[in-house]
Amino acid sequence: MAYNDSYYKEITIENYRSIEKIEMKDLSNINLLFGNNNCGKTSILEAIFAHACQFNVGYFFNIILPKRTQGLFFGFYDLGESIVNLFRKGSYTFENMKFSITSKNKANEETNTIYNFTPSNNLDEINPNTYEEFTIIKDTSYKNEPTKNNQPEYLGELTISNRKESKQFPIYQNLQFPRIQQSRDASYIDILEHRKPPSAITIYSALKRTNTLQEFIQEMQKVFPEINDIETIPFKNNASNIYIDSKGEKIPFSIFGDGMRRWYYLIGNMVANKNSVQLIEEIDSTFHPESIPMLSKTLVDYSVRYNNQIVMTSHNQEFLKIMLDTFKNDEGILRDKIRVYTLKKIKNETKLLSLNGEEARKNIEDYGLELR
Amino acid sequence: MKHTVIVCEGITDRDLISIYLQQVSGYSFTKNTQKFGLDQEQKFVTIQKEDDFIYIIPSIGKTKIKKVFEKICEKTKYEREEDNLIGKMYIFTDSDEDSEKDLISLVDDRIPATNTWIDIPIKNEAFDSITINTILLNIPPDQKGAIERFVLNSFLETGGDEKRIVSEIEDCVEAIKDVKYLKKNKKYVDKPSNKRYRDKAKVGCLLSILSPEWSTGEIIEKLKQIEWYKLKTFNELYENLKDV
Questions:
Q1: Kind and range of the H or E element at B30?
Q2: Are the beta carbons of B133 and B88 closer than 8 angstroms?
Q3: Residues 284-343 of chain A whose Cβ lies under 8 A from any Cβ of chain B
Q4: Of A78, A121, A203, B102, whose CB has the highest number of CB atoms within 10 Å?
Q5: Quick check: A349 contacting B, CB < 8 Å?
Q6: Distance between CA A137 and CA A69 in Å, rounded?
Q7: Chain B interface includes A370 (CB < 8 A)
Q8: What Rg value do the Cα atoms of chain A yield, rounded?
Q9: Which residues contact B236 (CB under 8 A, 6 or more apart)?
């Protein structure tokens, strides 16, 4: 699919987690979701991820469900409840849950994704209609293993559909699904993703294969001048690790601080997954204010160069101010490439307020307004 | 919380209004915590009475009132805290030689007439509908000229020593001709702006005579010493502010 065909210009999310209905309009390259804690920023990222994954439900479930609990579930009830919690309470019956995401591309063509879930009887325990009160079974010895008859517990039936087709997926506790082509390539990056060693290797490999490693190192040197080179060195057992060459010393990548490792991961991932939507949680996390201008420039530059559309969250007004100030002499970038969406509860209704970068900067600089 | 903006033309207007509201309505100066995207010379003051805040903004020139008005509207368009919304706006313009139509066009053509309240609608994503209750006032209402002329006339009306002092100052300043001073518009001597310039000088002379120790000090300090609320004509002038 051509990049412009998949580039999200508008997104409407309905009944995902606590979101009743949210419409994001006029999306651009860099889209910052701004707001206080627990206002639904992460839910928007997840919903966009569900839309991009579409029928590739294994990718969606295996990233979104474990990330909130570090992969630990108190038995299949807990896992089942995590699935049920993807659907907004009050908008469905327990027997038939539904959320949907609709997007429009630059040509105004619409794509939609609808998730319908019907829980199995195994999840009756968490059906609020079955008991007046229910207790989650805290089975700490739980392991994701098949039951006695060698079948993993059946949690229910998921139907995913778009306007053209519909597919059914039985959900078992092992969360295994067939691999199916997505509607759009997507990366979901939480605040700890950069700590996973295989991620660093994947990015190194992509940079090397696309002959972009040297250029990438030069970008990193603008913020981390101590880096001379990045390389992999094999061990005797044929495994390998990434090392930073700094002042002639080979230092394992894993012992560097989170700021540098997250930079490497975020920017490298844009090269490794070009033409994709990058969904980044808490973009400001781990970065020192001094590094934000260069991070901002690189995000804009790489999003254009590698056709990435970024949707990211933050609740840090200092980060936003520094990011916008970085482009104060380039109104074109502020106006055309950056959007700031604020999620705000006003009179018991959650609203999404949108500004382009130029307007957001004017709000802060001229009027001293709080954008959270 | 209640937020009111008063837009006036000059620093003298700003100070007179703020002092008047302090003396008459019990407001007091407070720290400026708001920003309105103003030019550097448009130094506004904030006065407060309990949860009511009034921001008095000098546009520094009649032609800049429109821009200040637009900035207030734009700030309101973007405001996301209900408690911070501006509810009322007074715009004071000096009568000078302008017609009512001229004065309106200096601010916003949606204003139907001077001295008439109108709700200016503002589109704001966060709230369903927002308006700023706005009034355009030309002062002094029954005479041409700026606030300085009004100050001089007010003292003339009081009689006594003040009337004599003002009369003699008028004669003295008017007698000063063919000097490089007292001309704002050097090309056209009879322009209203030059008359206003002379009136400013006369007010300065008056205040220096009333209080010589002030003559090298801040005008605001002198203005504070005058009991404006005792001047009948001043109460009439700012009558509209009584329900601020």
A1: strand B28-30
A2: yes
A3: 342
A4: A203
A5: no
A6: 16
A7: yes
A8: 22
A9: none
DSSP structure string for A18-74: T-SEEEE-S--SEEEEE--TTSSHHHHHHHHHHHHHTT-HHHHHHHHHHHTTTT--S
Q: Which amino acid is at B117?
A: W
For A127-177, give the DSSP string: -TTT-SS------TT--S---TTS-PPEEEEEEEE-SS-EEEEEEETT---
ipTM (interface predicted TM): 0.79
Cα–Cα distances (Å) from B47 to B100, B218, B223, in that order, read 30, 19, 16
Which residue is listed with tokens 């003292």? Answer: B155
Contact B126 A346 (CB under 8 A): yes
The CA distance from B218 to B8, in Å, is 20
d(C-alpha A320, C-alpha A326), whole Å: 10
Q: How far apart are CA A241 and CA A209, in angstroms?
A: 17
Residue of B3, B33, B34, B35 best to disrupt the A interface, most CBs of A under 10 A: B35
pLDDT tens-digit map of A7-60: 999 999 999 999 999 999 999 999 999 988 888 999 999 999 999 999 999 999
Greatest CA separation for chain B: 60
* CA dihedral sign, ordered A289, A291, A295, A298: positive
Structure tokens at A253: 């990548």
Rounded to an integer, what distance in angstroms lies between the CA atom of residue B204 and that of residue B219?
Answer: 8
Of A14, A29, A13, residue with least CA distance to A340:
A29
Specify which residues A186 forms β-bridges with.
Answer: A277
pLDDT, one tens digit per residue, over B8-19 is 998 888 988 888
Note if the pTM is more than 0.90: no
